[in-house]
Write a structure and sequence with these properties.
- The chain has an 8-stranded parallel beta sheet with strand order 7-6-5-4-3-2-1-8.
- The chain is an alpha/beta fold.
- The chain has 12 helices and 8 strands.
- The chain has one domain: Alpha-Beta Barrel (TIM Barrel).
């Protein structure tokens, strides 16, 4: 069975002081949950502080973004070399990066390759907008994003990725996709494309999360779907209830 993974994406929330207080309040409960990977992704300003707080735990740490160059005249950017000193994971291609900052599949692909080259573990996001969803373009859009993000990667590299299906229309709206619909996109689109590009073994090895209005109350339904391996959690990860969410996810997988 693919090991479930729950990722807390704090987005642009929490000062360093707030992050310290919050992690202190959840780290024992979060660390006690076994059988699943749990990863905190605070703002870059809080990475070092959170790293110190969870260093003696099994909780993983990730960044929310990075640039593909190692160093240079790229004001405001953070390189993979810098991140390797702080964390193990990095979220790439989130819909907010695509929508607000114009990121493309080609740019995400360069970031994925750079992350892998430096030993970071990418969490690669794909998802369709409300307009694309309503126009029945989900399959086409997601297929294109998956193909674009994986250019030049080997089967072994892809098998080790975490991907996140995040329908843009479900993020922060309180209106999640159904587990059946999310599972269908993951199983019949994302895994199908990977199988076509590589092979079925690779498609079945890659872990794929769902993201979009996930809560402690609905996580069990998502995790009960055989193609859904976890969740990329936004709003609910900013509250102590994130521990309950992870616990409920583990229970749903029989762990």
């Amino acid at each position: 069975m693919r090991r479930p993974i729950l990722v807390a994406n704090w987005k642009m929330n929490m000062t360093i002081a707030e992050a310290i207080d919050f992690v202190r309040s959840i780290r024992l409960g979060l660390n006690d949950i076994k059988g699943v990977d749990r990863v905190l992704c605070p703002p870059s300003t809080a990475l070092a502080a959170v790293k110190d707080l969870i260093s003696a735990t099994e909780i993983g740490l990730g960044a929310q973004n990075m640039y593909w160059e190692d160093k240079g005249a790229f004001t405001g950017e953070i390189s993979p070399v810098m991140l390797t000193e702080l964390c193990q994971w990095v979220i790439l291609g989130h819909s907010e990066r695509r929508g607000h900052f114009g990121e493309t599949d080609g740019g995400v692909n360069r970031k994925v390759q750079a992350a892998l080259a430096h030993g970071l573990k990418p969490i690669v996001c794909v998802g369709e907008t409300a307009a694309e969803h309503e126009d029945y373009q989900t399959g086409k859009v997601i297929s294109g994003q998956v193909k674009g993000c994986l250019v030049g990667l080997t089967a072994a590299q892809v098998a080790g990725l975490v991907m996140a299906y995040e329908p843009v229309w479900a993020i922060g709206t309180g209106k999640p996709a159904t587990a059946a619909d999310a599972g269908a996109v993951i199983g019949l689109v994302i895994r199908r494309v990977i199988a076509e590009l590589y092979d079925e073994a690779t498609a079945q090895a890659v872990r794929v999360q769902y993201g979009g209005s996930v809560t402690p109350a609905n996580i069990g339904v998502f995790m009960a779907h055989p193609d859904i391996d976890g969740a990329l959690v936004g709003g609910a990860s900013l509250k102590a209830e994130f521990v309950d969410l992870v616990r409920n996810a583990a229970k749903a997988k029989g762990l």
